[in-house]
């Protein structure tokens, strides 16, 4: 039936119009005010402007929305991404600098430099491939052993970059800043300081979000790169260091409501059985949207202001919620997590995961919107 099609079935613009009338089943509100206030709070603690990490679609929040929210915020110097495609997509949308934090392939270097993207380099081969108009942040490996040149090599690369007028920044990445034991972080900062001192004109940065909150102001650093904390999720033991609020609230629509008779089970595997006749809402949000299936048996969601149990196994597109005693209707919205009652930390705990996974896992079907207030 694909070949030839059916003349009665709309195509092209008419089909697009119909598609546009199909409503999203799940929404993510991205709170611009929380993002701005989190940025200011973190910049206050670090004593520096920020490079806001917006890799992985801004930790799932939507890079275009986050860039829009922070574009005019003076405490944000620029944005950082992980992939050349992310850099090339973002650079034309912002007046702020965009830093690519991973190596670009030789054929990507010229086009990225044309867009003004700041490149990261870790090796002599990468330095050799740079065009004359590149602006570069030299990556120094102080113990993460992921990217970067070891300090003696970094001194040589930095000198070569400086001689060519390409060096804008020098940076390192902390491996254990979320560990209450700060010895590793302090050793990394110490190793970095020696390289940093050789290039006083370069912008130096080292702290991720945990590093900002754990170390505060670090002499000699000019910028900081807090990611998860910017989105409102500091490490638990550092929560008192800054007032941060989650920036994302996910809500999903009730698609069906019915009464499950006593003794019958709900969802795959029949893991949950109704002890009595139970009112159950089917909510249109599943693991394909980022609801961790591993949270089955522990997950809860907010309906009509009450926190209720998710019943049975979380499915790909739906989950079932105990709404016994509530007059829940089809079409109303359930809060999966947000900034008031439940958070991404709860979903992470229920699924033995981390907030990074929960937030970056929020799927493409979830309609993201920038909101100015709690709404
Ligand atoms: C992701 C990333 C950050 C931000 O880390 P958070 O833990 O989210 O604060 C900073 N720097 C680099 C190099 C990164 O890859």
UniProtKB/TrEMBL annotation:
Residues forming the catalytic site: 55, 268
Names of required cofactors: pyridoxal 5'-phosphate
Residue intervals of the Alanine racemase C-terminal domain: 247-371
GO CC term, one of those recorded: cytosol
GO molecular function: alanine racemase activity; pyridoxal phosphate binding
Binding site for substrate: 146, 316
Gene3D superfamilies: Alanine racemase (3.20.20.10), Lyase, Ornithine Decarboxylase, Chain A, domain 1 (2.40.37.10)
Domain of life the protein comes from: Bacteria
UniProt entry tagged with the keyword Isomerase: yes
SMART domains on file: Ala_racemase_C (SM01005)
Protein name: Alanine racemase
N6-(pyridoxal phosphate)lysine found at: 55
Keywords associated with the record: Isomerase, Pyridoxal phosphate
Associated pathway: Amino-acid biosynthesis; D-alanine biosynthesis; D-alanine from L-alanine: step 1/1
Catalyzed reactions per annotation: L-alanine = D-alanine
GO biological process terms, semicolon-separated: D-alanine biosynthetic process
Biological role stated in the UniProt entry: Catalyzes the interconversion of L-alanine and D-alanine. May also act on other amino acids.
A Pfam entry, by short name: Ala_racemase_C
Enzyme Commission number(s) of this protein: 5.1.1.1
Source organism: Deinococcus maricopensis (strain DSM 21211 / LMG 22137 / NRRL B-23946 / LB-34)
Similarity comment: Belongs to the alanine racemase family.
């Amino acid at each position: 039936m694909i070949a030839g099609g059916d003349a009665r079935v709309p195509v092209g613009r008419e089909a697009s119009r119909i598609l546009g009338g199909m409503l999203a089943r799940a929404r993510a509100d991205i709170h611009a005010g929380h993002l701005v206030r989190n940025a200011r709070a973190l910049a206050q603690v670090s004593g520096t402007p920020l490079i806001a990490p917006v890799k992985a679609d801004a930790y799932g929040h939507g890079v275009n929305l986050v860039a829009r929210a922070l574009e005019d915020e003076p405490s944000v110097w620029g944005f950082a991404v992980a992939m050349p495609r992310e850099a090339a997509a973002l650079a034309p949308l912002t007046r702020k600098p965009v830093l690519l934090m991973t190596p670009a392939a030789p054929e990507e270097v010229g086009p990225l430099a044309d867009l003004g993207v700041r490149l990261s380099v870790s090796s002599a081969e990468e330095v050799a491939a740079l065009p004359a108009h590149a602006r570069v942040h030299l990556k120094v490996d102080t113990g993460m052993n992921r990217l970067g040149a070891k300090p003696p090599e970094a001194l040589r690369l930095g000198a070569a970059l400086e001689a060519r007028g390409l060096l804008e920044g020098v940076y390192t990445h902390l491996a254990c800043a979320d560990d209450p034991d700060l010895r590793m972080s302090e050793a990394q900062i110490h190793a970095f300081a020696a390289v940093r001192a050789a290039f006083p004109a370069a912008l130096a940065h080292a702290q991720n979000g945990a590093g900002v909150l754990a170390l505060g102001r670090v002499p000699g650093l000019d910028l900081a790169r807090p990611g998860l904390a910017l989105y409102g999720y500091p490490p638990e033991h550092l929560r008192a260091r800054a007032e941060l609020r989650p920036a994302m609230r996910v809500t999903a629509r009730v698609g069906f409501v019915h009464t499950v008779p006593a003794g019958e089970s709900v969802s795959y595997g029949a893991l949950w059985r109704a002890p009595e006749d139970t009112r159950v809402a089917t909510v249109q949000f599943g693991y394909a949207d980022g609801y961790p299936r591993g949270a089955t048996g522990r997950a809860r969601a907010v309906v009509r202001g009450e926190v209720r149990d998710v019943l049975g196994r979380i499915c790909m597109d739906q989950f079932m919620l105990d709404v016994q005693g509530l007059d829940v209707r089809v079409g109303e919205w359930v809060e999966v997590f947000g900034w008031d009652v439940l958070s991404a930390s709860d979903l992470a705990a229920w699924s033995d995961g981390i907030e990074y996974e929960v937030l970056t896992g929020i799927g493409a079907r979830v309609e993201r919107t920038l909101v100015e207030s709690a709404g």
